[in-house]
Write a structure and sequence with these properties.
This protein has a 5-stranded mixed beta sheet with strand order 34-42-41-36-38, with no helix packed on it. A 4-stranded mixed beta sheet has the order 3-1-8-5, with no helix packed on it. The chain contains 1 helix and 42 strands. By secondary structure, the protein is mainly beta. It is rod-shaped and about 240 Å long.
């Protein structure tokens, strides 16, 4: 029993021979899921010897070895301790985990912002939030895709990094200009978020600029500055023809039509009808420039607000017409029976009141003594003076003149001697000529009658 050997009852000389054989033990291996152990069958191992197994984990897994044999795993080789009894080698396989380390630059955040533990082949996601006006991009060693603000790594197979960076957004500001002016610069501009863009608008002469589009902004003089840019936008310049106010006015003694202020486009003209009262004529002042043709006043091309000021002046006499008092005679020292009368008229034959007419007599010899040397025309345009014969007999002339009248009127008078004062007056040359003219007119009328 045990280490004690007891012989049978001894009845003769005999021998007891002890022999010794080395113990062997069974080492039983096993492997869990996601890997293998080789050899996989139980192994017979002599006392004190070791047994070796190859442990092969699946991709993404790591092996660990337990059991009752004890031993050590180096790489994929597991070597038992010296075997002194039957024992087991149990291989298990755990899925690998890795550290994904996130980081974010200035002007934005990444969440979560602490290192993440991720199983082999799995992905992890981060929320990347740029500051206003910035855009995110993601680099690092994990690889992945950014959709919106969510960054999802590729399947993780090793420790890796996710690095978010943020860049200031830029936008395109697209200018355009309509007819009758230009915008500069005329090409699309790249503008950083929150910055402004400036454009110079140059309208053609006589046009004014206005600006629309989607950028917003303000026009000061010819410079348009956008609002702070936060998206792609447009600056649209348009140019409208300037309009100006032409203001008419009229003084007394006439009218202007139209009489209200007129709106006139740059470079156009405006026309007005001037109607003076009878005996008056129009003149035009003001700062529009232009010309008066008949009763129509047409301005020069209008380039600014201006005025047309019509005034009406009494017509000037241009003609003196003999009304009466010529071709008469009287005794020396006696008054002539009829006053010496003239009518002053304008170019249209309209009587002109208020015209001063000067009457003059020849010096020396027969002549007349006038009641006055000047007379002013009345409302009918007539000026008259009375005359008396001086003390010298004979024929003489009284002349009537007025400023602005080229042709004077001459009154032919005769002073008769006292002895023949009652005699029939001798026809004057003028009276003889008028009689002859009348005879000629009658003869011409007779000749013109149709013959039968």
């Amino acid at each position: 029993m045990g280490n004690t050997y007891t012989t049978n009852p001894v009845t003769a000389a005999c021998t007891v021979t002890a022999t010794f054989a080395r113990n062997t033990y069974t080492v039983t291996p096993s492997a869990g899921a996601n890997g293998t152990i080789s050899p996989i069958t139980p192994q017979t191992v002599a006392h004190g010897d070791t047994a070796t197994f190859t442990v092969t984990p699946d991709a993404g897994y790591t092996a660990a070895v337990g059991g009752t044999c004890g031993g050590s795993l180096v790489g994929n080789t597991y070597t038992t301790n010296p075997i002194t009894a039957a024992c087991t080698v149990t291989a298990t396989f755990a899925r690998n985990t890795y550290t994904v380390t996130p980081s974010a630059g200035a002007n934005g955040t990444i969440s979560p912002n602490s290192p993440q533990t991720v199983s082999h082949g799995s992905t992890t996601s981060f929320t990347v939030t740029p500051a206003n006006g910035y855009s995110a991009s993601v680099g690092g060693t994990c690889g992945g895709t950014l959709v919106g603000t969510t960054y999802t790594t590729h399947a993780v197979t090793a420790d890796c990094t996710v690095a978010a960076t943020f860049t200031l957004n830029t936008y395109t500001v697209t200018p355009s200009a309509g007819a009758n002016g230009v915008i500069s610069p005329a090409t699309a501009q790249t503008v950083a978020h929150g910055d402004t863009a400036t454009f110079t608008l140059t309208p053609d002469v006589g046009y004014s600029a206005s600006v629309g589009g989607t950028c917003g902004g303000s026009l000061v003089g010819n410079t348009y500055t956008t609002a702070p840019i936060t998206a792609a936008c447009t600056v649209t310049a348009s140019f409208a023809r300037n309009t100006y106010t032409v203001t008419p006015s009229a003084g007394a003694n006439g009218t202007i039509s139209p009489a209200s202020a007129q709106t006139v486009a740059h470079g156009d003209t405006a026309s007005f009808t001037l109607t003076p009262d009878a005996g008056y004529h129009a003149r035009v002042d003001g700062n529009c420039g232009g010309a008066l043709a008949g009763t129509t006043y047409t301005t020069a091309p209008v380039t600014a607000d201006c005025e047309v000021a019509a005034s009406f002046e009494r017509n000037r006499a241009v003609l003196l017409v003999l009304v009466g008092g010529s071709e008469q005679s009287t005794q020396v020292g006696q008054p002539f029976a009829q006053p010496l009368a003239v009518r002053a008229t304008d170019v249209d034959g309209v009587p002109v009141p208020g015209t001063v007419v000067t009457f003059s007599v020849a010096s020396g010899g027969a002549g007349a003594v006038l009641s006055s040397t000047t007379a002013t025309t009345d409302r009918d345009g007539i000026a008259a003076v009375t005359a008396s014969a001086n003390g010298v007999s004979g024929r003489h002339v009284v002349t009537a003149r007025a400023d602005g009248v080229e042709m004077p009127v001459r009154f032919s008078l005769s002073n008769l001697p006292a002895a023949v004062a009652d005699a029939a007056p001798v026809p004057t040359l003028g009276e003889a000529m008028r009689a002859l003219l009348a005879m000629l007119l009658v003869a011409a009328a007779v000749l013109a009658m149709p013959r039968r």
